[in-house]
Amino acid sequence: xxxxKRLKILGIATKWVxxxxxxxxxxxVSIGWAVNSHWLYNYGFSKYNVSRTTGLADSELEKAxxxxxxxxxxxxxxxxxxxxxxxxxxxxxxxxxxxxxxxVKSLIWLDYWVLLGTLIYALAYVGVCLLWRKRRYWRWLTxxxxxxxxxxxALMLAIGLGTLLGFDRLFYQFHLISFxxxxxxxxxxxxYLIMLFPRGFWYxxxxxxAGITAGLAIILGGVAxxxxxFSRSKVMS
Length: 237
Hints:
mainly alpha, 8 helices, about 80% helix, elongated
């Protein structure tokens, strides 16, 4: 096999890897965004009357959200969160919840590493295509973005439909796959973690991530598609 043919195969392979990386990158960005979104936490607290369910003041809920976000981005193994209820301070999470949050944090950091890895590859691919200064490679780049955006939209449509039609089943399967223990099976009458984040919150969070991912795909795909259309019309004229 000649060197030219090998380089051509390598170019096609790297393009397809970039195209398939894009949905993973955009989804991991949206998950990281949701994890660190004070707005999303406060939206859930307000929508599901968490203050009434837990007996905690809004200021305590906001403090809990801030400390959870800080914990997820820290090197601390376990969280220790003190809340005040009826003038008395207490540990908001019991031992079972603390261990489960450690497992959740591991998943969040996995998402961060996936985001970093796909971002590095995507930026490297974009950089090579742009620095090569050949229109052929620019077209490869924009077609990869359009293709990746299309795959992303198809996946988000599937997730959205799955969430609408059978969220409880998907949520249950997610926990079976993601966790090696049953500490996620919490009691909504006494465990504050599930009172803070009831089922409805996770439904909304899933739709939030799908929406953000789809929005990013539309923006990137639209820009890349616009470039392809402009360059093609310029050549034809």
